[in-house]
Amino acid sequence: YIVLVFLSIASVFAVIFAWFAIMVTGQYPRALFDFNVGVSRWWLRVAAYAFLLVTDEYPPFSLHAA
Fold it and tell me: Would you call 22 helix, strand, or coil by DSSP?
């Protein structure tokens, strides 16, 4: 959870930066999109592991899809 808190803070700044990039270029930067999706997926994996007990496999320490 500690790592996810820091990643979530970084994700908020990435969303703000992406908003400005969208206003200037009209496109969402792919790297920022992938980072934000990765953080969201990791939150979901940790929640499924810790609270929903739907899996016995601990979430991997990566932000990309497995």
Answer: helix
Planar angle of CA 10, 14, 19, nearest 5 degrees: 155
Distance CA 1, CA 18 (A): 25
C-alpha 51/C-alpha 40 separation (Å) is 16
**Dihedral Cα 17, 62, 5, 30, nearest 10 deg:** 10
Amino acid at 34: D
Amino acid 10 reads: A
- The residue type found at 60 is P
56: confidence class by pLDDT, cuts 50, 70, 90 = low
pTM (two decimals): 0.75
